[in-house]
Design brief:
By secondary structure, this protein is of the alpha/beta class. Helix content is 44%, strand content 19%. A hairpin with a 4-residue loop joins strand 6 and strand 7.
C-alpha cells in the first residue's frame, strides 16, 4: 500500500481530530453498566482471545459492584459486510446491550475509507435495532516498524482510524483509538525484535563447529550477553501479535475508554501506624524488631497480567497506569527487605523504594499475581463454552431448527452463565497477609 505524504501541519491537525474524538467519551465514564452483555465483534485478531480476554479480565477485577458478561464474536478474515451477514445468528442471539466493533485490518484491502465508514453506519443501525449500544475500536497497527511519523504500510489503517473517530463522535458513541496509542511503541521497538530474532538464530547455529564463521556468531552472542537491556518482542506475526503486543492493545483500549486506573493504596510506618488506606482496609498490624505484618482486604483487584506478557510492562507504562495498586512503608531502616504475601515470596525491595511506594501489580510471583492468572483462566474457560455455543447458534436459530438443537443451545447457555459466575468468584477480593522483614 502506498502513502502520499502530508504536510506536517495537516498531519498534526488530523491527529488532533483523532485525539479529540478518542477522548470525547473518556471524560464521562467507562461504557460498562450493571447488567450489560457485551459482545466483542471483530476479525481474527479478536478471535485470538488474547486482548479481548485481557480486557474482560480487567473489568471483572476492577468493577466489583457491577454484574455483566462478555462474549467474543471474532471471525478470521472478517470485514464489516461479513459481520453484517452473520449478525443475526452470531451477535443478536446473545441479546447484547453493548456491541464493540473492532475491524479494518481486512477491510483495508477491498474498501475505501468512505465505503468502510458507510458500512460502519449500517452496522451501527443494526446494533441499535437490537437495543444495544455500539462502541467503536480502531484496528491495531501492523507491527512492521511503522510509526506515526513514518506510517508506511499502516497508512490506510491510519486513515480508517481518523475517519472512525469522526464517525463515532457523530454517532455519540464511545470510541477507542488503539492504533495511534500503540504504533510508536511497536514501531520503535521493532529493531529490538529484529535483534532478538538474530540472537535466536545465532544460538541455534553456534552448536555446529562445521559452520564457516561460527566464531563470529559466538563473538556476537558474547557481546550481546554484556548488554543488560531487556529486549521485548510483541511475538506472533505483524498482524497477529502474541500476548505482549495484545496486552498493550487491551491497555490502550481500556485507557482510551476511560477505565478506572486506581485500585487501592495503603501507607504505614515502621511502627505499624496506618497513615492511609484507600480502597482497602488494613488490620491486625504487628511491628516488631524491624519487621512489619498486616492484613489487607481490597475492594477491587489489579490488572490481571499473564506471565507470557509481563515483560512488556516496562515498555508500555499505560498498563501500570491502569493498575495503581500501591503499598508505601515509611521509617524503615536503610537496607533491603523481603515482601511476602500469605507467606509466599513476592519481591525484595529497598527501604527507599518502600518509602516512595511500590506498585504491587508489577510483581509476577505470589498470590496477587496468581489470582490474576486464575481470573484469566476462568475467562478462557468461559470463552471455550462461548465457542461451542456459536457453533450451535447458526443451526439452532433457523426457522426449521429442531427442538433438540434448541434444547442443546439452551443448556449451553446455562453452562456459559455458570462460567460467568465462576469468573466473578475468581475475581472476588481475598484478605491477604503482608509481611515485610529485613532481607537475609
Amino acid at each position: 500500500m502506498s502513502f502520499a505524504p502530508l504536510r506536517p501541519l495537516i498531519l498534526a491537525g488530523l491527529l488532533m481530530l483523532v485525539w479529540v474524538g478518542a477522548h470525547a467519551h473518556a471524560a464521562d465514564s467507562f461504557p460498562l453498566q450493571d447488567g450489560d452483555t457485551w459482545v466483542m465483534v471483530g476479525d481474527s485478531i479478536t478471535a485470538q482471545h488474547l486482548h479481548s480476554n485481557y480486557f474482560e479480565a480487567f473489568c471483572y477485577a476492577r468493577y466489583q459492584k457491577l454484574t455483566f458478561r462478555f462474549r467474543n464474536s471474532g471471525v478470521g478474515g472478517d470485514t464489516v459486510p461479513k459481520v453484517l451477514a452473520r449478525f443475526d445468528w452470531d451477535v443478536a442471539p446473545w441479546k447484547p446491550t453493548v456491541v464493540s466493533v473492532e475491524l479494518g485490518m481486512n477491510d483495508q484491502g477491498g474498501y475505501s475509507v468512505e465505503q468502510f465508514i458507510g458500512g460502519m453506519g449500517t452496522l451501527a443501525q443494526t446494533i441499535r435495532s437490537t437495543g444495544a449500544r455500539p462502541v467503536f475500536f480502531t484496528s491495531s497497527p501492523i507491527n512492521n516498524g511503522g510509526t506515526r511519523a513514518k506510517l508506511g504500510g499502516n497508512a490506510k489503517l491510519h486513515d480508517f482510524a481518523v475517519a472512525l473517530a469522526k464517525f463515532a463522535a457523530e454517532q455519540k458513541a464511545p470510541f477507542a483509538d488503539q492504533f495511534h496509542a500503540v504504533i510508536d511503541t511497536w514501531g520503535n521497538n521493532k529493531p529490538n525484535e529484529n535483534l532478538l530474532g538474530l540472537i535466536s538464530t545465532a544460538k541455534s547455529l553456534v552448536q555446529d563447529d562445521k559452520i564457516a564463521g561460527v566464531e563470529h556468531l559466538r563473538a556476537f552472542l558474547a557481546e550481546q550477553a554484556k548488554d543488560f537491556r531487556p529486549l521485548v518482542s510483541m511475538q506472533g506475526d505483524p498482524v497477529h501479535p502474541g500476548p505482549p503486543g495484545q496486552l498493550t492493545m487491551a491497555a490502550a483500549l481500556l485507557k482510551e475508554l476511560g477505565a478506572t486506573g486506581f485500585v487501592s493504596s495503603a501507607t504505614l510506618d515502621a511502627a505499624g501506624q496506618v497513615a492511609e488506606a484507600k480502597g482497602c482496609t488494613i488490620g491486625n498490624v504487628q511491628a516488631d524488631g524491624g519487621k512489619l505484618a498486616f492484613d489487607r482486604l481490597d475492594e477491587c483487584l489489579p490488572f490481571p497480567i499473564p506471565d507470557e506478557a509481563r515483560n512488556v510492562l516496562a515498555l508500555f507504562p499505560t498498563i501500570l497506569d491502569l493498575s495503581q495498586y500501591t503499598l508505601r512503608v515509611t521509617g524503615l531502616s536503610a537496607g533491603r527487605y523481603t515482601l511476602q504475601v500469605n507467606s509466599a515470596p513476592v519481591a525484595t525491595v529497598t527501604a527507599q523504594e518502600l518509602a516512595a511506594g511500590v506498585n504491587l501489580t508489577a510483581y509476577g510471583q505470589g498470590p496477587i499475581a496468581a489470582q490474576g492468572k486464575a481470573i484469566l483462566a476462568a475467562v478462557s474457560a468461559k470463552e471455550g463454552l462461548v465457542g461451542q455455543w456459536r457453533g450451535l447458534s447458526r443451526l439452532a436459530t433457523t426457522a426449521d431448527a429442531s427442538a433438540d438443537l434448541k434444547q442443546k443451545l439452551a443448556a449451553l447457555t446455562q453452562q456459559t452463565e455458570a462460567a460467568d459466575a465462576a469468573i466473578r468468584k475468581a475475581a472476588s477480593p481475598q484478605k491477604l497477609r503482608f509481611e515485610i522483614a529485613p532481607a537475609k
